[in-house]
Amino acid sequence: MTIPLRVPDAAELKAAAERLRGRIRRTPILELDGQEVGVQGSVLLKLELLQHVGVFKTRGALNTLLSTEVPPDGVVAASGGNHGAAVAWAAREVGVKAQIFVPKTSPQAKVDRVRSYGADVHLIDGYYPEALIASKEWAAERDVLQIHAYDMTSVVAGASTLGQELVEQVPEATAVLVSCGGGGLYAGTALGVGDAAQVHIVEPELCPTMHAALEAGEPVETTLGGVASDSMAAPRAGAIPYAVATSHHARSFLVTDEAIIAARKFLWERCRLLAEPGGATAFASLLSKAYVPGEGDTTVVVISGGNHLDFPSPSDPARRGSPNSPS
């Protein structure tokens, strides 16, 4: 079952919010003193790691299943863990079968989480690209709905509910920082926030997918690796997220592995938030001064996920140079 790629319109964003109301968590805001973070202005954290399944991707997965007629053979997805868990959870919620293709390089905790929601897990040699190919080959022989991790209209519309919530929760926000792998979270947040605030992209230096696309003038393949690769190493930026980024004149700020690890440590030690590396990447831009707010600014940082419990070292060779999953 093939669905055309296009940016969701205003009616679809509104419909997604109405469709998901009461079925997903309205995740809370935690306010920090800007001086505590070492920046000017106010800093607020949108705690999306408290969402069902521990990640923002639940929004897009459930919106897709609630807005699309699911074929007899159910749904299929390729994922390094987070998207797969979100699809598995959403499939269980609506009573359909899910098949999740996961690279063997994914953290075992994420694989176990996918299985815990009742999905059939197919472990694939290699990394995310191989898992995606395998899932498409499996789907080609069946009547099944393939749910892409970030490049799908209904997925982006679902993610937009996070941005819509932010406008209601923090109407004074001047900037929103979001981590970006394939770009689904960025695109949804930017569409949901609209003109209320500027939404900025933050990426690891070792997973600069959207940064490379914006520099090249189109989505391109790039070298991937680093501590956040299990959730942010998309092989290339999605067509929909790239279209949103260009139309919104987005900027991408890059952060080092060391900055991401420091951000995770800060969030745990100061806030008792156990964010995964990808979930802490946007916050790393503030601590490292990759992004510097102005005096009087109100900056919201989306803490997007919390499904990776260990603290990998940036020198760990398993975390470098390997194109893992877009989560």
UniProtKB/TrEMBL annotation:
<feature type="domain" description="Tryptophan synthase beta chain-like PALP">
    <location>
        <begin position="23"/>
        <end position="305"/>
    </location>
</feature>
<keyword id="KW-0456">Lyase</keyword>
<dbReference type="Pfam" id="PF00291">
    <property type="entry name" value="PALP"/>
</dbReference>
<feature type="region of interest" description="Disordered">
    <location>
        <begin position="305"/>
        <end position="327"/>
    </location>
</feature>
<dbReference type="InterPro" id="IPR036052">
    <property type="entry name" value="TrpB-like_PALP_sf"/>
</dbReference>
<keyword id="KW-0663">Pyridoxal phosphate</keyword>
<dbReference type="InterPro" id="IPR001926">
    <property type="entry name" value="TrpB-like_PALP"/>
</dbReference>
<dbReference type="InterPro" id="IPR050147">
    <property type="entry name" value="Ser/Thr_Dehydratase"/>
</dbReference>
<protein>
    <submittedName>
        <fullName>Threonine/serine dehydratase</fullName>
    </submittedName>
</protein>
